[in-house]
Amino acid sequence: MNKKYIAVVLLFSGLFIFSTLLSYAFNIYRQIYVGDQEEGKPFIVEADATPTPTPDPLGPKNILLLGYGGAGHEGGLLTDTIIVAHIVPRQNQVFLISIPRDIALPLPIKKDGEENLKVNHAYAIGSDNINYKNKPDEFSGEAGGGNLAKYALKQITGLDMDYFISVNFDGFKNIITNLGGVSVYIPYTFDDKFYPVKGLENETCGKSEEDIAALTATLSANLLEREFQCRYETLHFDKGQQLLDSESALKFVRSRHSEINGGDFGRSQRQQALLIAIKNKLISYKSITKIIPIVNSIAKNLRTDINFTEAFDLAKDQGDFTDIKIETISLSTDNVLSEAYGVGGQYVLIPRNGENKWEVIHEFIRENLQR
């Protein structure tokens, strides 16, 4: 198995796809694959009497990349990271399209109805077969979370999602650790005084139950955070090229309370920067030798619907991985989104030309993919 085959697919899926590429680690692959294959059956393409058009092997592909907290985190299946990797083999190019988690859209939470929710709920609802028993069948089971997220992202972007890959925070940190850290250029110095400390989400900070009830009833989420400072730590990042370890890298991509380019839009840009940094580290020979421990460390924290054959085809059809060009696209209030408030006064983002009017976003993405 040559280095080009391994590295190209690693690049395409950024943080997540390592396990699917190693034929001698098929047992690990079976842990992460959540597609439609029945247990115990090989991957077989059934004959079809009806001729179908041959797909273009070099046509664009869209892989939905999802990052979430996992067990032990509040809202553990809500996706913090939502990025569409639009792969264009003919141009040896990849576009990373960052999607803010606060975009609101209708999600089919039951067979006969939808509910307007933030897009970061899609993976969580699809993965929850206890509290959402009556959702459509295609959004149930092992692949339910990925399938519902793909459904949601097609509405927002206008692009068909070919595959999804999801990884939790532990898997993310294991990747960075096994790479020996990654070097990221930080364009400006910033502080975040309200980064949540795991395990202190419900700390009272010396306040009584009555005090907490009164504050919760009267303050918005941002103001409420300031009343419970014991739940948070202060982050500091200096401008310039920085080597980030696993903990620092996770904090770098999750931070959203800095006064300088804070919020989800700034976070999207940092997530893109880290993916590019990981790509740069992976194509070095030193990092390629660390593929096996990465595979072993993330298998239990990763899920995908890319089967082994499809992973091989993605690699085979791509050009020289060292020459791949990465472009970034970010949706924000500077271009196609507007701030709004949903049910109960919850902060959300909607298309600039109106709720559920996605064409302005579709057009923006189409134009940027053609640049």
UniProtKB/TrEMBL annotation:
Domain Cell envelope-related transcriptional attenuator: 79-282
Highest rank taxon of the organism: Bacteria
Pfam family, one: LytR_cpsA_psr
Sequence similarity: Belongs to the LytR/CpsA/Psr (LCP) family.
Protein name: Cell envelope-related transcriptional attenuator domain-containing protein
Organism: Candidatus Woesebacteria bacterium RIFCSPHIGHO2_01_FULL_38_26b
Taxon lineage: Bacteria, Candidatus Woeseibacteriota
